[in-house]
Specification:
Elements (H helix, E strand, L loop, with lengths): L22 H16 L3 H15 L19 H13 L3 H8 L1 H10 L6 H9 L5 H6 L6 H8 L1 H4 L3 E2 H18 L4 E4 L1 H4 L4 E2 L2 E6 L9 H11 L3 E7 L18 E10 L46 E10 L5 H9 L2 H15 L1 E3 L4 E3 L4 E2 L5 H8 L12
Parallel strand pairs: 4-7
Antiparallel strand pairs: 1-3, 2-4, 5-6, 6-7, 8-9, 9-10
Helix pairs in contact: 1-2, 1-3, 1-4, 5-6, 10-12
The structure holds guanosine-5'-triphosphate and manganese (II) ion (2 copies).
């Protein structure tokens, strides 16, 4: 017979490729996780996310409950859901949820760039249900939310790998104008091998530490002058102000959350597809008409024009000093759960504090330097997991 290899409860000790053999279950669990997140129930959110993630890592299709023997991270609720789907193909709780108006509305509102759960919930409680109701309301939007509404129809479309590579070329040209030997790396989901993303993430560095300082504002200014930038929000590096031993999700690198104006290529049009998290919102605003339509007093519908030759795309740019580059690369490659479990593993099993800048060893009271991701995994006592296997 075969010897069963135990499945680790830590995502950072599992190899999770994009070949998910249990999508029927993970899709259902993800909906429950999403609903918990939209209700700010952190515990259930994590439980369903971990259950979904462990199923993604299995090298076989689950066809009977017996297949789940010894699999960690599956609580009673998750096991019941799997059992129900095994018996009847669907899960009632999930079917009810996707019909639920609060779930639908909060999912739609949080799919707007700049809108989090708290804001979406507030708008829902005020009786707002559709994007056009938001647009017609007297709500005071942030600049980010205004851009989110203005380019909504484009931003819910998935970004393709071809578009990501095109944006990489544009950024390389801009960055090399100011810093010829700067290194630009595609991170996030595309580095994990995904064919589609909700945005494109880049990490920028230079071998001579210090040369990267001030780069981001120069690059954004130049690209703005070229008409490439529709929205930008630059944050300066604030690492010096940080209590550096904290393990935070958010880092202190110089960065820019932006929206690019990407000239459309003939072959990258995919009208039928939408992002996984934007699918519910897709039809609602179709057919609004041109920017400045009567139903949009504040001109928040620029991307409704069907014949325009460009597409708005979300781009994240992060600039790291060379000494922190490996940590930044690891931190910005994801997935979100993989990152979370890396930090948790570092803390509980290594007595170390991991963030996107550094790894601090509490026992030796020292920072552990690393030039590569492989060295970071080694510091943590973990087998190296390549980006393509971090799709936890
Ligand atoms: P899609 O973009 O949806 O295709 O997936 P993705 O995995 O690329 O997600 P996203 O772009 O949201 O994030 C990429 C990685 O960067 C993830 O691992 C996140 O945890 C991480 N990340 C995102 N925003 C921040 C941030 O503000 N600070 C830090 N340190 N990490 C971030
Ligand atoms: Mn991304
Ligand atoms: Mn991103």
């Amino acid at each position: 017979g075969t010897i069963a290899v135990p499945v680790s409860p830590h995502a950072c000790q599992r190899r999770t490729t994009l070949n998910n053999r249990n999508r029927l279950f993970t899709d259902a669990l993800n909906i429950l996780a999403e609903n918990a997140e939209l209700s700010e129930n952190e515990g259930p959110y994590l439980a369903f996310t971990r259950a979904s993630s462990v199923l993604k890592s299995l090298p076989y299709n689950v066809t009977k409950m017996d297949d789940l023997k010894g699999i960690p991270n599956l609580g009673d609720h998750s096991r019941k859901l799997i059992e129900e789907i095994l018996e009847g193909g669907t899960c009632n709780e999930v079917q009810d949820l996707i019909q639920n108006v609060r779930y639908q509305t909060l999912k739609k509102f949080t799919s707007i760039f700049g809108v989090g759960v708290k804001t979406a919930d507030k708008w829902f409680k005020e009786g707002l249900r559709t994007l056009n109701e938001l647009r017609a309301s007297t709500i005071k939007f942030t600049k980010q939310q205004e851009a989110g509404l203005l380019y909504y129809e484009d931003l819910i479309l998935p970004v393709t790998k071809v578009e990501a590579d095109l944006i990489k070329q544009i950024i390389e040209e801009a960055v090399h104008r100011f810093l010829p030997s700067a290194i630009i790396t595609l991170t996030g989901g595309f580095r994990r091998g995904k064919e589609y993303g909700h945005d494109v993430d880049f990490l920028i560095t230079h071998r001579e530490e210090g040369r990267e300082e001030g780069l981001i504002s120069k690059v954004i200014s130049w690209m703005t002058a070229q008409g490439i930038i529709l929205y930008d929000d630059i944050t300066d590096n604030s690492y010096h102000k940080w209590k550096y031993k904290e393990s935070e999700t958010f880092d202190r690198f110089a960065k820019c959350f932006s929206i690019f104006k990407l000239q459309k290529m003939v072959h990258n049009l995919e009208p039928g597809r939408t992002c996984s998290h934007g699918s519910l919102a897709a039809n609602e605003t179709r057919g609004i008409g041109l920017a400045g339509h009567a139903g949009s007093p504040r001109h928040l519908t620029a991307t409704a024009a069907k014949d325009k030759d460009w597409k708005a795309v979300r781009v994240d740019l992060v600039v790291a000093p060379f000494g922190q580059y490996a940590y930044a690369l690891l931190g910005w490659t994801g997935s979100r759960l993989f990152e979370r479990d890396l930090r948790r593993y570092a803390k509980h099993f290594g007595h170390m504090i991991l963030n996107s800048h550094s790894l601090f060893d509490n026992k030796q009271n020292t920072f552990l330097l690393a030039a590569t991701e492989e060295e970071i995994f080694a510091h943590l006592g973990l087998d190296y997991i390549p980006p393509q296997e971090r799709n936890a």
